[in-house]
Each structure stands twice: as C-alpha cells, then as structure tokens.
Amino acid sequence: MHLRSLPPRSGPHPPASGTGTPAAANPPSRPERSFALTRWSVVLALVLMVGGVSTATLLLVDRMERRAAHGIVEYARMQSRLVQAQWTDALARIDALQAIAARVSQAQEAGETVRSLREVEDLRSALTVAGPPISQVSGVDLDGRLSWSTLALPDMPVSVADRDEVRAILEGGLDRSVGAPLVGRLSARRTIRFGRAVRDRDGRLLGLTLVSVDTARIAHLGLGLEQPGHSFIALLRDDGLVLARSDGQDVGTGSLGMTANRPMLVPAEDASAQEVTGTDGIRRTVVSRPVPGSGTTVVVALDEEAMFDGVRAHAAQMWRWSVLLDLALAALAALVLLLEAQFRQARGERMRHTAIRAQEALIRAIAEEANDLFAVLDSAGRFVYVNPASQVLLGVSPADLLGQVAGPCVAADYRAEVRQVLHLLANGGAPRRLVVPMLHRGTGEHRWMEVEASHITWEGAGPARTEGCFFIARDVTDRKRAEDALQQAREDLETVARAGPGTLYRMALDPDGTRSLLYLANSGHLYLGFSHEEASTPGFFRALLHPEDRARYEAGIASLRSEGRTTLEYRLQDREGTFRWVRDTCVVSEIRETSLVVSGYVLDVDRERRQAEALEQARRLLSLGEIASGLAHELNQPLAAIGLSAENGRALLGRHVPAVEAAREKFARIGTLATRASATIDSMRVFGREGVPHPVAVDLAEVVREAMGVMQLRFEREGIAPVLDIPFGLPPVRGIAVLLQQVVINLLANACDAYRTQAPSPGGPRPLHIRAGVEDGMVWLDVADQAGGIPPAVLPRLFEPFFTTKSHAGTGLGLAVSFGIVRQLGGSIAARNVDLGAVFRVSLPVHAAEPEVPAGDDAARTPA
Fold first, then answer.
1. pTM to 2 decimals?
2. Distance between CA 627 and CA 635 in Å, rounded?
3. What is the pLDDT of residue 17?
4. Which positions ≥6 away from 535 have C-beta within 8 Å?
C-alpha cells in the first residue's frame, strides 16, 4: 500500500509507498502511449535485425561446412581408389611368384630335382623386381613343414603347421589364405604370408606355397597422399584383422581403434562413407574398398577435425563480424530506450504522487470507521497513528497512545516475540501474522488479538528506506477460548484412551470402501505397533485385516451405512506379524457429499477370545475324558483275556518240540500288543482326571522306535519310507512312555492317512521324516510328510475332538487325544504347512532323571 503520515505533520510530506495498489490512477495519456509504442517498435526492430544477421551467418557457415564435408568424402574415396589400385598391382606380382613356387613344389613331388632348383633360382631373380619387398617364398608339405625356401633352410626341420594360413589350406580345404602379421622363423621380419594350395593334375593336394611380404612396406601404400592429423590408411583381412596401417597402430589386432570395426566397415560397391568416432575420441570419415579375390580390404580414415581446420577458421571470422554488428545494433537500441525511459519516468512520478494522495485519503476514511484496531508505528516502535477503535479494544483513546511505545500494550510473556517481529519489519522483512494478548486498561483483563503487520517504505529524492510498520488487530478472545477448550477436551480424550485397552479413531469412508484415517488416539500404537503416519497410508487397514474376516467386515460396513452404527469383531495383524482380535464399535458422525465420517472405539479383545477358545477346548477335552473312561471300562477285560490266551498258547507250544518257532513268536507279539493296548486305554483316564500317572524321565528316541515298529507293516503295505533323524545323546523328556508312544503312533498314522488320498508315487517310496532336537529347554519332535499339506480352513480345527476330514473312516479322536496328552505333560503340539506337505511338532520339557524303559519292553517281559 502507499501511505503518507496520517497524523498532521509540519513541513512538506515526502511521498510513501508500500505493498498495495493505488486506489485511483489517471489513465495514460496519448504521448505516453506513443512512447510505449516506440519502445516496443525499437525492441522488435532490434530483434529482427539481430536475428537476420545471425541467420544469414548461420546459413553461410552451414553451407561451408556441408561443402567441406562433401569434399572430405570425395577425397577419401579418391585415396581409397588409388590405394586399391596399388594393392591390386602388388597382389598380381604375388600371384606370379606363387605360380612359380607351385612349379617348384610340383617338380619336387615328381622327383625332378634339377627343375626344382632352376625354378627356385627364377624365384630369387623375381624377388629383385620392384614392388612390395618379398622376404621369402617357400613351400610347405602336407605335414606342415617347410620343404624348400628362397632362404637357407636350417638342418632341423622347420614346422609352420601352427600358422592360421597353413591350417586354413591343409585342414580347412581352402585354396587361398592370408596369415596374420607375425615375425618369420627364417626371415626374422614381421611379415604377412599369402598361402596358395598346390595340387597335381588330378586335383590332389600336394602342399602349399607361402609368399611372405614385409608389413612395413605394405603400410607405405598410398605414400605421398595427404593424411592430415590422425588420418590413416589400413589393410584389413576379411575377418577384420588389421594386416597393416600407415601409422603402425593396431596391427595384428581385430580392431582399428573404432567404436565398431567389422560391422561398421562392411565394404560397399559404391565405397559409401561412414562417420565413426574412434576409441581415441577422434571422429573420422571412413571409406573401405574390397580387393576382389584377395580376401583383403583397403580402408581410408580421414581426421575430420584436421580436415575442417581451415573451414572453421573462416566460420569463426564470420561469426566475430556478426557479433560485432549485433552489438552495434544493440547499443543503438539501448540509447533509444534510455531516452524513452527517462521521459516516461518523469511522467510516472507525477502520476504516482497524485495516486498516493488519493490512496491516503481512502485509507484514512476506512481506518476511522473500522471496528478493528488500525495503527502505524515508526522505526522505534512508537505509535504515530491509531484509529478510534483503540478506545473499545484497549480502553485508551488514540491521543493517549500517540508517541508511546507499543510494547507495554502486550502481555509480558509475549513482548520478546513482538520486539523480534518489529525488528524484522524495520529491516524490510515479510508481513507477519501473530496472536498475542493485549491489556485492556479499562477492565484490566487481557484480550487476545490477531495481528497482521507489514513494513512501510518511504520514498523521496534519494533511495527508498523502511520507516516503520502498520498493523491491523482484531479481537479473537472468544475464538481463542473455544480453541483452548477444544484442545483440552482432546487431551482429556487422549488420556482416557491411553488408560484403556482400546483406542479412539475417526475416518472418512468413501462409497467404494476406501478408508481415510482422520484421527487416531495416541494409544493406537499400544497393541498394533504402528504410528499414525503408517496407519494413514492408503490400503493400510486392508493389508492388516485377516483374509477370513474380510467378508464379515464388509457386511458390517454395509450395516453401518444402512443403520448408522454397528459393532464388529475381526482380526488385525500387529507389527510382529501376529493376528489379534479386536471389537470395533462405530457410528456415523457426519455425512458429507461423497463420503461418511465414522467415529469409533476399537477394543483389544484378543485375550478374551483366546480365553474363550481355551475354555471351549477344555470343555471338549472333559467330554473326551468321559468317553475315554467309558472305553477303558468296556475294553479292559476283553484285552486282558486276549493277553491271557496268547500267554497260554505260548506256554502250550513250549511243552512240545514241533517246528512252530514262527508261531511262538507271533503269539508273543500278540501278548505284547494286547498288554500295550490295555496300558494305553488305562492311560486315557487322564482325560477324566482319574488315576493320572506321575510323569517320569522318558527316552523319546526309544519311544519313537517302538512306535515305528508298531507301524512297520502299514509302512510296507502303503509304500512309505520312514526316515529317522534323531541325534545321539538326546536328553530325556518329562512324560509317560506309553502315552507318548500313543501320541507318536497317532502322528504316524495321520501321515499315512494323508498319503492314502494321493495316487502312488511313480518315483519310488513316499518319504516320511521323523526328526528331533533341543531348543530353549524343550525337546522337539517333528513328523513331516510330503502329502500336499493341510487345507487352511482345516488347520484351526485339527485338534478338536470328533473333527475329521475322512468321509468313511476315522473318529476324529486321534489328534485330540494327542493334544490332551501333550498338554497334560506340560508340552505343546502344533501343525503347519511347508512346501510339499505338513509338519507336526511336539515339544516336551527336558527331564534331568534317567530315562524310563519303554512300556513295550516291560509288557513283553510280563507274563499274562
């Protein structure tokens, strides 16, 4: 805003400006509009002229570079043609030498020694002919040894069978070959060998001839041609091997130092040029030409940077003249704009002063009628203007406040903050908003004021400077009290929530079921372990909800939408991965356009639910104990009679000596099993709390072996291969041997039943693993099958009495009995699924005493 000193002052008033917009301003006159039009015309003309000069320069430079690039390509093609012609002439001489060398080898094969010596002399004479220097011409027999040479052969045979040009003919069946650059074994020079097969009139291979050419002289092909910078001429074999290069680099390798070699240097009939950047960072124009029938290719690579040096120098000169011309045009335009700006500034000053005076009058009129406190402070924090609202809000007239410091009007605890804000505004700081209590001198109470303050900048002949600040204050005492009361209520609610076992929440429920958490009491982390930020992420609740409870939860939400309130019980997963039961009581507290706002209380009822489940299990086990007691009473006498009969039969067989030893053993086994069955039924009275035996130290390994002996026939009949893995020295457990034996038999039988539902395994016996170990003072026993596992819906009910998944067999008592035995002995039993099947684990406390001998052995030694 713009402001002059609102109270009367002596002398002329300097103009002032601030952060607002003038309340009134005269429209620009015709001369001002014409000068503005002139300014934009000058700018547009400057842009067009600078753009025209730059575009013309760019087009000329581009044309020069394109013509230079075309010239480089044509120059490379010309060089490649010349080098190709030179190399073709050299190859013709090499072919002539190979023809003579073939006659030498044929004469030797025919036994014509005189003729072969004469041909060798002819070769030596031919080597003196101008052309690529030939270090030697030699012949190679079918074994890869030098049979003759223009150089003297040593006494020992010289083998060259390891050379690739020799193998290509002797083993590969080729007629011609080109070898890699190597140091010759006779010439001691770095050469390239050109091989050619020697055959008789019937086409039978007699050997081959080698012509060795010095690589240093091959690299001089094209000597005399201009190769500026890092340009080079190279000779390549068809497989990309570098045979020679004018600068001597990369010879004998499969790379020309390019980012791509053979895929890029594919010879073309029209010798098309390619731009390639080498591994040395130099960009070259490359032209390659094949030499027909030779297996070689001529490559010319010209350094573009070096070839472009002259063109770039001319282009740089043109750009320098262009820049100088642009600068001259810009200076001329700047001069025109400067003159126009000075004239415009003079007219603007007069118009702004007029607008300031009009604005000051408007502000004064508004301030005098306002109900809010309006005040202006100087740089020292003293009042220089106060509107009449100070009488109502502060209990003091404007005249009494003028010249006083504003600090005492504020409560003592907030004065430091006010002084800091005034200091920032005095230094040109940004506008501030704060809520502070101010003293009402009439009543003596503090009224809460919301203050918006901003600095005032005075403008005069010199630079602008900050001279003070102005502020508007409105009474917000009632609002502040309401906010404090709301905050206190929220804190009280948080305290109550932290003291209870649940938590309060508030959420927005969209039509598609999306939950957006609006509020969560601080106790929410006590049983879930998640922070408010984590709980507010999209999809968080659905990820924690137990899959089996989702349908029930959605039904409860539907009831909430229709009836406005509901109570749900479901399971949520805490940070440790454990599912806990909660009871959610919620109501619809607000209906918005696109969603419902739901308030609720979530109570942790996990312990309550588990106690109820334990009570139900105890009730079932009590019923099972009563059934077990009845079974024991009804079956004890028949089993005793069976045992007595078996013992008598064994005694009778013992009075004679017939060959019935096998029958005697069977009768003994019947007696043992009958005794064990009787002891097992007696032990079932533990469920009825009648005559519970005292637990002693039991060797669990021996108990498992006895149980496996009982199940052995069933294992063999159903194709099950038990695998026993019990460590030596397993400590004894606290238990009752016959009861633990019954538990193990039930688990083994349960695994057999699981395998029975599957088709026979084509890969052999079906495994059944029995393992044991010690952990945290408990001995554990695992029975693991690979029968496909337990359905998830069945797992929670495995140990319920009379629960069975077998439609035509089973009473549903085996696992329930085992559960009761293990719990009675102070242990635990549980089941879980693994990759291929299920694992049942029994955990029993360790006993320090010596193990008890299993009941089976005692029964076997006890007469009926």
1. 0.35
2. 12
3. 41
4. 517, 520, 524, 528, 541
